[in-house]
Design a protein that fits this description.
This protein is 38% helix and 33% strand. The radius of gyration is 39 Å and the shape is rod-shaped. It contains four helices and eight strands; from the N terminus they run ααβββββββααβ. Strand 2 and strand 3 form a beta hairpin. The longest helix is centred in the first third of the chain and has 31 residues. The strands form two sheets. Strands 1, 2, 3, 6 and 7 form a five-stranded antiparallel beta sheet that branches. It has 209 residues and is α+β, with helices and mostly antiparallel strands. The N and C termini lie far apart (92 Å).
Length: 209
């Protein structure tokens, strides 16, 4: 019995050394253990992708009828007499055209311009900074142009130039009448409600300055 106890006492230093080596090896393994790849979903990127899918969002429209006229020197005697006495004591002939155009202007946001920097996600908060509202389209169909007066000879190119002026006039009138401001206010309200359906309790929508 004493021999057995003596053998154990002799082995104690060896057992302690082995235990120390095992513990040290375990600590080193835990310290230098390769980290497992963790799948991280980029929520911001997903939101930007979903918003971009909307592309152009129309939030306000403007409708107007405009009357535009143009004049030019007559190329033939079919023109209208505007002055009976010219430099050569000859009647001055003038061609005139009057066009009535009905146009529709769409304004809103081009959401394809949204970038990752424009979206901030923090817990239950979603903050989105929109690009500025812009004129998305000016629609004047060919059937919406009505030639009210046409004196003299007008080529297709000359008529087209007058029609282009009518479209530009409608566009500028829409801007002057506050269409972009109206589109911004309605767009912010509409998108705020839409983004809330993404599951965020707080949504802040702003517009770039």
């Amino acid at each position: 019995m004493r021999r057995f106890r003596n053998s154990i006492y002799r082995l104690l230093p060896f057992i302690a050394l082995v235990a120390l080596i095992v513990v040290g090896a375990a600590l080193l393994y835990l310290k230098f253990k390769p980290k497992e790849d963790v799948l991280v979903i980029d929520e911001t990127s997903n939101i930007v992708t979903e918003i971009r899918k909307i592309s152009e969002l129309t939030t306000a429209c403007y409708y107007e009828d405009v009357i535009l006229k143009d004049k030019k020197a007559a190329s033939s005697v079919t023109g209208k007499v505007v002055n009976s006495f010219g430099k050569k004591n000859e009647p001055i002939m003038e061609d005139e055209i009057v066009i009535v155009a009905s146009g529709n202007v769409r304004a809103g946001f081009d959401l394809s311009k949204l970038t990752a920097k424009d979206v901030v996600v923090s817990d239950s908060l979603l903050e989105v900074t929109l690009p500025k509202a812009e004129i998305l389209d000016v629609i004047v169909n060919p059937s919406n142009f009505d030639i009210y007066i046409e004196d003299g000879h007008w080529t297709h190119e000359q008529v087209t130039k007058v029609e282009d002026r009518a479209m530009n006039r409608i566009r500028q009138d829409a801007v002057n009448d506050g269409l972009l401001q109206h589109a911004t206010e309605l767009g912010v309200a509409k998108l705020t409600e839409m983004f809330k359906t993404f599951g965020y309790s707080e949504v802040v929508v702003k517009v770039r300055k």
